[in-house]
Amino acid sequence: MGIEDRDWRQDAQREREKQRQLDDTRARFSAFSRQHLEEKAISPTRTGLIPMMIFWCVVMGLLYLLMTHYLQPKQAQVRANGELVIKRSHDGHFYVLGTVNGQPARFMVDTGASLVSVSEALAQKARIQGGVPTTFNTANGKRSGRIVEGVDIAIGPVSVSNVRVGVGLHMGDDSEALLGQSFLSKFDITMGKNQMVLRAR
């Protein structure tokens, strides 16, 4: 056997050893990747992603319920002397729950409005029919509607009969209405910083 043959065999043996080491390293790296990287990518519960999403959904739902309850207008308080007390809302307006011909409504008190005004949808539910056609001048322009006599409006325990009501105003929700002077004129009104007091005349 010549020297060249020995050198060639030693070189080949070294190459095989290098290849074996390289294959061994690749196999270990692949096993590490499967064990640590792919497992985490496939299982988001281990990283806490799904529990975190559930937690924030619950928090947002609770906040929504709290804000809805917090912003809901309250029933007017009745003092021993019969006065009605309406608290100022967080947006600066006065809101109060009441009824229109027995149909529940959420009133916004507007001392500058001449009439109690309701939407056509609320009027249908409250069986407010007929009336005189008219045109209302609103902040958003002119709107056609009708004026109806003889409607019963109640806030808390206080009810006023034969109230003139404008039908055709829409404030966003069908149950919302405007409480104007056709109802408020039956009361002496005292405005405070955080409340409005209605005293029957």
Structural commentary:
This protein is an alpha+beta fold. The chain folds into 2 domains: 3-71; 77-200, Acid Proteases (Cathepsin D, subunit A, domain 1, Beta Barrel), CATH 2.40.70. It has helices at 3-42, 44-47, 49-71, 120-125, 181-184, and strands spanning 77-78, 84-87, 95-100, 103-109, 116-118, 132-138, 141-155, 158-167, 176-179, 187-191, 195-200. A 6-stranded mixed barrel has the order 3-4-9-5-8-7. Strands 1-2-11-10 form a 4-stranded antiparallel beta sheet, with no helix packed on it. The chain is rod-shaped, with a radius of gyration of 38 Å. The chain starts with a helix and ends with a strand.
How would you summarize this macromolecular structure in one to three sentences?
With about 200 residues, the protein is of the alpha+beta class. The chain has 2 domains: about 5-70; about 75-200, Acid Proteases (Cathepsin D, subunit A, domain 1).
Round the Cα radius of gyration to an integer and report it: 38 Å
Find the CATH superfamily of the largest domain.
Answer: Acid Proteases
Rough outline: rod-shaped
The rounded distance between the terminal residues' Cα atoms is 131 Å
The fraction of residues assigned to DSSP E strands is: 25-35%
Overall mean pLDDT:
81
**CATH-level-2 architecture of the largest domain:** Beta Barrel
Main-sheet strand order equals 3-4-9-5-8-7
Query: Would you give the CATH topology of the largest domain?
Result: Cathepsin D, subunit A, domain 1
Q: What structural category characterises the helix and strand content? A: alpha+beta
Which H/E pattern describes the elements?
HHHEEEEEHEEEEHEE
Q: What CATH first level of the largest domain would be assigned?
A: Mainly Beta
Integer tally of domains:
2
Helix fraction by DSSP (H/I, runs of at least 4): 25-40%
Low-confidence stretches: none
Tell me how many strands there are.
11
Major sheet: size, sense and barrel closure?
6 strands, mixed, barrel
Q: Number of DSSP helices?
A: 5
